[in-house]
Design brief:
Layout: H1 5-12, H2 19-29, H3 32-36, H4 40-45, H5 50-62, H6 65-74, E1 78-81, H7 89-92, E2 100-105, E3 114-118, H8 125-140, E4 144-147, H9 153-163, E5 168-171, H10 185-194, E6 196-199, H11 212-221, E7 225-228, H12 236-246, E8 250-253, H13 264-271, E9 275-276, H14 280-286, H15 306-314, E10 320-321, H16 322-329, H17 333-346, E11 349-353, E12 356-359, H18 362-365
Parallel strand pairs: 3-4, 3-7, 4-5, 5-6, 7-8, 8-9
Antiparallel strand pairs: 1-2, 2-6, 10-12, 11-12
Helix pairs in contact: 1-6, 8-9, 8-17, 9-10, 11-12
Length: about 375
């Protein structure tokens, strides 16, 4: 790790020194090390208030940066700064990009193809199903799933990505050594081994409420688009959606019942211009990601759950309208359409027209169906 990383960590420990002030200090002094070693008079001349100047002096006196850097290395944590080539390109371009990132796990070049999946902690069974199916379908196409490791939709999205053998990135509102919620510690370990757990907060930072809204800019910044599955009127997922819009990212929302409080925020996003997400293919087309992962659907050997199985058995080699499919299987239309969308990504079914599907033949799909 570079010698100057400790000075980046030092400024990261100073409350009130964010991206704007740090950039100003670096512009004044030339580099982060010179800025860190500037005396109080120089800091005041550079435009810092006396209060901020004192805070820097306090951290210099109290923090052993060499010891902190050693601890970071011993914990297997990677530190990326603005000066690192490995710093995520998409994140670098957002307003007030975080100067320092702490990572457990390893970022890969393929993570530039990332989509965020976020939503409420108080999800419904519909929200769970859609989150799982969307996340699985996207990772099958080589897309990395980004979310916030929170209870509810976030955790479901991470787990679905892992279960499908894909990559996922968790962005924390605490230090990477302070996993929250505590019941997601095991999930975080799995994510670090198959993706990345990251934060811009110093090690030891507790999961305080005020930390979470700012971290949402990182979730959207790492992503090409943000999918809001279920969200109430005051859900933090709507903050992520707003950051995404401000950053020029595409926003998708899953339509829900007008009577469900969990869908009011998502439905409102659609009303405000977000893309209504009716199929994972909508994401691929809007974000022009059709060539990711070779551009071909990753096919499952067999339908992976009872709903897929019954739909595959119901469909033939002639197109069938969704309304007819629902009547035959006696399942809600939202469940049928969501499942068909995933099956289409897997190569089990083909969409032949508006709301019409047909099964892919066994020889074409490359497997034998069970009788």
């Amino acid at each position: 790790m570079r010698e100057d990383v400790k000075y980046w960590i030092g400024f990261n420990l100073v409350k009130g020194i964010g991206p704007v002030r740090l950039q100003s200090l670096m512009d004044t002094f030339g580099d982060v090390q010179s800025a860190w070693k500037a005396n109080p008079v120089q800091l005041r001349a550079a435009g810092l208030s006396e209060k901020l100047s004192r805070r820097i002096q306090d951290v210099r006196r109290e923090a052993d940066l060499d010891k902190i850097l050693t601890s970071v290395e011993q914990e297997g944590i990677t530190v990326l700064t603005w000066d690192d080539e490995a710093y995520p390109a998409g994140l670098r371009d957002i307003p007030q990009s975080p100067p320092v990132l702490y990572l457990k796990g390893e970022l890969k070049d393929t993570d530039r193809w990332a989509v965020a999946v976020v939503g409420t902690r108080r999800y419904t069974s519909y929200g769970r199903q859609v989150t799982e199916e969307i996340s699985r379908a996207l990772v099958h196409r080589g897309i990395t799933i980004v979310s916030g490791l929170a209870r509810g939709i976030d955790g479901i999205a991470h787990q679905a990505a892992l279960d499908a053998g894909g990559r996922t990135i968790a962005v924390l509102g605490s230090g990477v050594d302070r996993i929250y919620p505590p019941e997601h510690r095991g999930l975080a370990q799995k994510i670090a081994s198959q993706g990345v757990v990251l934060s811009d907060y110093p090690l030891g930072t507790p999961p305080e409420g005020g930390n979470f809204p700012p971290r949402n800019r990182i979730i959207s910044g790492l992503s090409r688009g943000v999918i809001v599955v279920e969200a109430g009127r005051r859900s933090g997922a709507l903050i992520t959606a707003k950051y995404a819009a401000d950053q020029g990212r595409e926003v998708f929302a899953v339509p829900g019942s007008i009577h469900a409080p969990q869908s009011k925020g998502a439905n409102a996003l659609i009303q405000q211009g977000a893309h209504p997400l009716l199929s994972p293919q909508d994401v691929m087309e809007v974000l022009e990601l059709s060539q990711v992962g070779g551009g071909q659907p990753k096919r499952s050997e067999l339908p992976s759950n009872p709903t897929e199985a019954i739909l595959y058995q119901t469909l033939g080699l002639e197109p069938l309208h969704v309304d007819d499919i629902c009547a035959r299987v006696e399942l809600p239309v939202e469940k049928v359409t969501a499942t068909l969308a995933v099956m289409e990504i897997k190569g089990l079914v083909r969409k032949t027209g508006a709301m019409e599907y047909m099964a892919v033949s066994e020889s074409e799909a490359g497997y034998e169906a069970e009788g």
